[in-house]
Amino acid sequence: MSSEKRVAYLLDALRKGDAQARRKAAEDIGQLRAREGLESLIESLGDKDSGVRWMAAVSLGQIGDSRATEHLLKLLKDKVWRVRWAAVGALGELGESQAIDALSRALKDPIVGVREKAAEVLGKLKDPRVVEPLLGVLKDEDWHCRWQAAVALGKIRDARSVAFLIPLLNDEASRVRLGVIEALGKIGKPAVDHLLRVLNNPDNTMRWSAIEVLAKIQDERTLDAIIHALLDRDWQVRWAAAKALAKIIDLKSVGPLIRCLEDPEWHVRWASIVTLGKIGDPRAVIPLVHKLNDESSIVQWSAVSSLAKIGVPAIKQLLEALANVQDDASRWRISSALGKIGVPGIEHLLKALEDERVALRLGVVEALSSIGEPAIEPLLHCLKEGSRDVRWGAVSALSGIRDIRAVQALVQALKDSDSSVRWGAAAALGGLRNPQAVEPLIQALSDADSGVRWGAASALGAIKDKRAVTPLVRALSDADSGVRWGAASALTEIGDPSAIAPLTQALEMEEDAGVHRAVQEAITRLQKEKTSGS
Prior knowledge:
- Helix 9 packs antiparallel against helix 10.
- Helices cover 69% and strands 0% of the residues.
- The chain has 34 helices and no strands.
- It is an all-alpha fold.
């Protein structure tokens, strides 16, 4: 059904249907925001069924046409409270300032829900004329109304409200107290002194909320109080203070934040680390390096990010920590921090490659790997390193970066004295998928190490160059089952039907179950491709 027919059907139901059908039609017209239904919905505001009147008012608010305003104003006197509630909400959606007087009167409605809705709507209008009526609602017997009035006054941001809001900081309802804090925060500087006094309130949640809004106000009076809150007895307040200081950014907070790095609660340590990273003061470097081994992994990685933000001033300490690292996980976190510093740190990393400590050089290689393309030349230099670990790390890094400049260096690495480096070079060349690597990889199929032969076969399969078919067929007779399996898989990837016959012959000779299955799969796939190709 087209949208035009759908609306026509709904309008007909709105006029002629039973009460349930009329309610449903009014609801659907509103959801469609069909302006064609405006007049019919206005007419339905006088429907004998209160449910229809209620839904018609809601839908008029959704459509948002100011022509409905005067009709909705009349509905504020409806005898059914939920109809009045819907009319208030709809007027709020229309945003008509001409409704202010009527909505202000609705603040005295006998039904709590209507009064609360009226306060909410008047807050959205943000008109100073509603301040006085809303101040009266702060004394409403129902806490929902008091809370909504406080929130509304906060949205209007009129300093006249402050004196009337302050007494409600002692309201019996916690929701009201927190609403007042939120409102005072939006009013801003005129409320700062009162919010600072909340930091001495015994209620932990109130102190926490006050800190959040004080940080947003950005007033010079707030810094010392928030720093002092880092010592609060409640960890959530300390956490809020550490986060709040990230919005103020003042060097005065660096020392107290550093002390918070030893807080027993990881949330506080984490927030302090994040804030120190945003401040970027070099004094935080050594304490942050220590947090790379924190018991919380979240704290560890936040330290990585913050050290990266501090940047070059952190490099010396990170390299020193890298030289003394005791485990792979710690080395990876430190090298990640160095890598995140990026291009500005490359010069320092190159100098560190000359250090005699292997752990340091290996970590530097990992850092260069995470920097990416700008680190290609230093990594190529690492392939000539004396340490097997560093050469292997460079090969692995180049594999991840996949830059064409690495091809010739990786081809040379296929002749490395260490088999793990040769295997890594083969895998990297497979990832690069460059035809220049085909002949050297074919030669690597004769390597003395079976792992290298398997890596070469896999790389040739990834490159998919038909020059490798005959050498891979020969590899089907390799003494190592892993190499035979790799050769069969590579021939499958290359997809040359000329391999079907030798694969069939190899299948008859193969005794290893896993290789037998791989060869059979290769034959089946190549035959299928040959048939579809012809």
